[in-house]
Amino acid sequence: MSIAIPTEFEIHLFHEGNLCRSYELFGAHLKEVNGVKGIQFCVWAPHAKAVRVVGDFNNWNGSEHEMIKLNDQGIWALFTPDVEEGALYKYEIITSQNKKILKSDPYAFYSETRPKTASIVYNLSGYKWNDQKWRQKKKRKKIYDRPMFIYELHLGTWKKNEDGSLYSYRELAKELIPYVVEHGFTHIELLPLVEHPYDRSWGYQGTGYYSATSRYGTPHDLMYFIDQCHQHDLGVILDWVPGHFCKDAHGLYMFDGEPTYEYKHARDRENDVWGTANFDLGKPEVQSFLISNAMFWMEYFHVDGFRVDAVANMLYWPNSEELHPNEFAIQFIKKLNEKIFATDPTILMIAEDSTDWPMVTGPTSEGGLGFNYKWNMGWMNDILKYMEADPIYRKHLHDKVTFSLLYAFSENFILPFSHDEVVHGKKSLVNKMPGDYWQKFAQLRLLYGYMVAHPGKKLLFMGGEFGQYDEWKDLEQLDWMLEGYEMHGKVRVYFKELLKIYKKQRPFYEMDHHHNGFEWIDADNRDQSIFSFIRKGTKRNEMLVVVCNFTPVVYHNYKIGVPLKTRYIEILNSDDEAFGGSGQINKKSIEANEGEYHGKPYHIEMTVPPFGISIMRAVKKRGENQKNGKKTVRSNASRRGKRVKA
């Protein structure tokens, strides 16, 4: 037995924090050395006195498979022909205190299904991808001025087999993908798929960062699932946790008997909120491990982005009443984003950040953290607090709706209604709404409509699309039987129509991150809790007028100021009977009248539905163009190249 010696340059880069594909060196790899086929093992254990490979191939006795220490910084390696693909293995580590511990491989590509914890030798190569069209299309599109509505889901509880067993990646590809496409979502976001021991951690407390969880199948099965998503024009975002990891004995915690991946001092290491350990983000080898991990999911699984979990937990030192910035974490985040975007400029790097840290989505060259998106947690908290209030008292919470527009363009925001808002007694979205059964669904439709009309990309957790009445039950599948109930079926019809309009109407997404894309009509109608505003596209006079009524009162001949003297057509009304509403809609187009109102030169009179949203599209009269502020009419002569002024 010998080793295929890593280059000095690779080793140098790893200890420098810049080996961005460290998974090519570490872990278990099929290799051929001097004409002999076998497995090359490599692990970093800087405090170990000795490291051995144990597994089902040696009856878990490592005496014949002792690893060679390559340098003083603790890289250990071994090449052996005794091991084949599919073998179970762990590292037997002799600590500096002469204790023997067994650890799974931090770089393992596959793992035993819980509750078993061994790593599995797995060859990731061999899957034939068929997503070339998707990857080419990504390069041509700029996501900032494209629609993006993300469906967040937990694979284990979206749907289960009749016997209660989990769907496989391939079964999910068959059922989940058509369902998501049918509703009009542009991306799916998967709760963490790294290997994790406890189902109810939802993947946020991982042990195998390079090991796609075996709960749902093999890594090749996951590749197939993502490949099918891309072939059906769906992007795939992974929830990713580079801040902390679980403390199970076989995982990263105290990997060689001493702090290795975590901070040295307990006050920095221990994450008291989640009972986990914080990554030492200042340690170069940990930087190589984590940055490589993102690269790994991009290279081998073709993922389109990462929702980076708990950024606030990284930005500030833990276990302190005062907020002390963690400079190690700040520099790591900047470095991570720089490396990722240098590799693939189309990737989505989304910060789940609850702080008011400035320039989270600003470029690092200008002092920003370098993400290209950030969850708007402030908007989410404000609008839910507003919606949960009795409509009588909403006038006292008016600023909860208007405040978000003061900062909506300071970052590139995603508006999230995520899993965190529908668990632990918080109720489902529909059940948060006050009032009777009908009013709850009316306000849910209003909430979704307002979300679509508000600047920013969108995210909804699974079940919200059909109004799951109970909060998320993280051991059971969604309540699919509700689709047979009239109001749940109708809210699903509404949601699909809403997404269809969202994707068709460019003012709803082209200017999401620019203040020119939004204009208030009336932000001050506190007494009636009615808000009206304009969303604009990039083309001249391309606009939508949005009116939201957060009370159960219907208004006829309600006056709204408008900027153009033209017709306005209602393209969506959440109170349509087809959606479960009361039918207070505007069937005919509405002509704008002379007369200033709401600071606009013209006005329309319309029906404002109860607990409803009305979306009106400004249209040009047939044969009429607007050019340089002057009205011109095209005649037959103009079609032949002549233009006549009206």
What is the CATH superfamily classification of the domain at 8-120?
Immunoglobulins
| Radius of gyration over all CA atoms, rounded | 28 Å
Outline, from the CA principal axes?
elongated
Q: What average pLDDT do the residues reach?
A: 94
User: What percent of residues are in strands?
Assistant: 25-35%
CATH class of the domain at 8-120: Mainly Beta
Strand order of the largest sheet: 9-10-13-17-18-19-20-21
CATH architecture of the domain at 8-120: Sandwich
Number of helical elements: 15
Q: Which structural class should the secondary elements be placed in?
A: alpha+beta
Total beta strand runs: 33
Main beta sheet strand tally, sense and closure:
8 strands, parallel, barrel
Instruction: Give me the CATH fold name of the domain at 8-120.
Output: Immunoglobulin-like
- Helix coverage percent: 10-25%
**Low-confidence blocks of residues:** 623-646
Cα separation of the termini: 91 Å
Describe this structure in words.
- With 646 residues, this protein is an alpha+beta fold.
- It contains 15 helices and 33 strands.
- It is elongated and about 90 Å long.
- Helix 1 packs across helix 7 and helix 13 (437-453) runs parallel beside helix 14 (486-504).
- 24% of the residues lie in helices and 25% in strands.
- The termini are far apart.
